[in-house]
Specification:
Blueprint lengths: L3 H17 L5 H13 L7 H7 L11 E6 L2 E2 H6 L7 E11 L6 H14 L15 H16 L4 E12 L8 H15 L4 E7 L1 H9 L5 E5 L2 E5 L4 E7 H7 L24 H11 L13 E4 L2 E5 L2 E5 L2 E4 L1 H12 L9 E7 L4 H11 L15 H10 L5 E3 L15 E3 H11 L4 H5 L3 H7 L1 H7 L6 H19 L1 H4 L11 H21 L6 H5 L3 H5 L3 H19 L3 H5 L3 H16 L1
Parallel strand pairs: 3-4, 4-5, 9-13, 14-15
Antiparallel strand pairs: 1-2, 1-3, 6-11, 7-8, 8-13, 9-12, 10-11
Helix pairs in contact: 1-8, 5-7, 9-11, 10-11, 13-18, 14-16, 14-18, 14-20, 18-20, 20-25, 23-25
């Protein structure tokens, strides 16, 4: 008979499944559920979580693979070349099996995979017959970062989690866990390696733990009250360092989600800030620094203490990062110096955007870094909402409100969708780091989100890609391990081929080899709903299969080349002749 924990967990998972992703199959949703709960302390967005969830064939028993550097995802560190001294690298790997018990065979499989993929003497190119390209690409990126940053890495942690819906862990699994731990310690000497079996009780505890909405900021001097608009206060450097540091000793990532400027390295002003911290003078720190601006939804002023609801640092990231780095090496040091902090309580989202823009125009910044506050994104948000879609200009704002994943449109997702549907470049959307690449390139970003693009182009692009997502998640495409449309290892193939399906649909509906935003904007919802998706999937399958025969590459590699796009147009022409 199931325990109370198992029964409660089943109810929690069922309710969330129906609310968040009703079209996703049970096993796939359980993997996503475990990833969301496990990674809650890292405060990842939906795209970052889904990019690390593997599943499907060739995963070597790994359902989730994530790498963090000082608490930041490796993607973010690579995109902004943010490699601090004495950094900590965490590799988080999990298995998720919606079964009432833990399997020794699953642990043995993981031991075999780990001993292979983390053996740097073995080239990943020689492992393609064993593992999926999705897994190997993540492993390759981790290996390259690790080898290139070895002099900067002070600590390595490898954490394994095995999730099950049951609670009982057989004693025999302890020996297999020891083998997994010993294998990892041999491959990563001096690393901290942990293996945890997490059943119904642990998953329930994770699900009940939420990110704190209120944070307390101790005040040294003040605060001065600025009417209903906020506060100005002097905060001790030590207290501010604790405010921005999480329980794992990393930057509290949730504070920086809305920051429009990333850390720019040890150059210019930042070197001067670091110098000021390292060498105190007769002038207090706050006299030599412009200070920090924080926006919050509400603030409560108690004696020498400000309680802030959902605080976000919108200006002063460079100062904040230098303070964090300074105290990270001096965790127990008390520093009497102070920093000036402004807490602003904007009444509306528009007011919040104006504050972000205004406070970041005081110093030169690169083009495009004010993305979330730009008019085009506010317009997209307003235009999509009446059609039932919620555009996330800010990380997790709608997921945290319990909106279904089917109606959430993130900025990285829209970028990948636009580059596929409106600019016939699905091969650029396939790549693992596409989310960062497309948004960080000024030229590409301007094409995707230029003011001349009709708003209907964004809506129709979302309608096309969301319909494809629904098709992929349908019972027909999930029913067999050997998929009718895209062959074996169905989920990885379907998910990286979705962008090609979008390009094919755009070509088919607009009758253009190179459909642009103007052509896509002219489509109607009836046009999009009228496309028979099994036929589209079959055509894309034929294209990738033919390329595989010609190039002697696998389908994933073929999907990442521009050759696949030219072949799609040929397939559209053939379909038109046969119709």
């Amino acid at each position: 008979m199931p325990s109370n924990s198992e029964l409660l967990l089943h109810r929690v998972i069922t309710e969330r499944h129906m609310a968040l992703a009703p079209r996703m199959d049970d096993g796939q949703f359980f993997e996503l559920f475990c990833a969301v709960e496990l990674l809650k302390p890292y405060d990842l967005d939906l795209d970052e979580i889904q990019s690390g969830v593997l599943g499907g064939g060739g995963d070597g028993g790994i359902d989730g693979f994530f790498v963090f550097v000082d608490g930041e995802p490796l993607d973010a560190v690579e995109a902004h070349q943010r490699r601090s001294r004495d950094c900590e690298v965490e590799v988080v790997i999990f298995q998720a099996k919606a079964t009432a018990s833990f399997s020794g065979a699953a642990v043995d499989k993981l031991v075999s995979t780990v001993s292979t993929i983390f053996d740097f003497s073995r080239e990943t190119t020689g492992l393609r017959k064993l593992y999926s390209e999705e897994l190997l690409e993540k492993v390759e990126r981790f290996r390259n970062f690790f080898a290139g940053s070895i002099a900067r890495i002070a600590r390595v942690a490898v954490r394994y989690y095995y999730f099950s819906t049951g609670d009982y862990v057989h004693d025999a699994l302890a020996a297999q866990a020891d083998t997994l731990r010993a294998t990892s310690e041999r491959l990563f000497p001096d690393a901290q390696v942990t293996v945890e079996f997490a059943g119904a009780q642990q998953l329930l505890q994770m699900a009940r733990t939420s990110r704190p909405e209120w944070l307390e900021l101790p005040v040294r001097e003040g605060p001065l009250v600025a009417g209903d608009s906020g506060y100005v206060a002097l905060i001790g450097l030590s207290e501010y360092a604790r405010f921005i540091t999480d329980e794992r000793g990393n930057r509290r990532r949730a504070l920086f989600m809305e920051n429009v400027r990333d850390y720019e390295g040890k150059y210019g002003v930042n070197s001067a800030i670091a110098e000021t911290l390292e060498h105190p003078s007769d002038d207090d720190f706050w006299m030599l620094n412009n200070g920090i601006t924080i926006v919050a939804r509400q603030a409560r002023n108690a004696y020498k203490n400000l309680a802030l609801q959902d605080p976000k640092i919108v200006n002063g990231l460079q100062t904040t990062t230098e303070i964090f780095e300074y105290f990270r090496r001096r965790a127990d040091q008390n520093d009497d110096r102070m920093v000036l902090v402004r807490v602003v309580l904007p009444e509306t989202e528009a007011s919040r955007d104006r504050i972000i823009v205004a406070t970041n125009k005081q110093t030169p910044i690169a083009a495009g870094v004010l993305k979330a506050t730009e008019r085009v994104h506010r317009d997209i948000e307003d235009y999509l909402r009446p059609h039932g879609f919620y555009y996330e200009r800010r990380r997790n704002e709608h997921r945290n409100d319990g909106k279904s994943l089917d109606v959430i449109v993130t900025m990285p997702f829209l970028a990948r969708a636009m580059v596929s549907v409106c600019f016939r470049s699905p091969h650029r959307a396939v790549k693992v780091n596409a989310n960062k690449k497309l948004l960080d390139s000024p030229e590409v970003y301007e094409r995707l989100f230029g003011v001349a693009n009709p708003l209907d182009a964004y809506l129709n692009t979302v309608l096309i890609m969301k319909r494809i997502e629904g098709f992929i998640a349908s019972e027909r495409t999930q029913s067999n391990s050997d998929d009718t449309y895209l062959g074996k290892s169905r989920r990885p193939s379907l998910w990286y081929a979705q962008w090609h399906l979008g390009t094919y649909m755009a070509m088919l509906l607009t009758h253009h080899q190179i459909p642009g935003p103007a052509e896509v904007a002219c489509l109607t919802s009836e046009d999009i709903e009228g496309v028979y998706l099994p036929q589209v999937a079959m055509a894309v399958r034929e294209v990738l299969r033919d390329l595989r025969e010609v190039t002697k590459r696998n389908e994933y590699q073929c999907a990442k080349t521009a050759l696949s796009v030219d072949k799609l147009w040929d397939a559209v022409g053939a379909a038109a002749k046969n119709s």
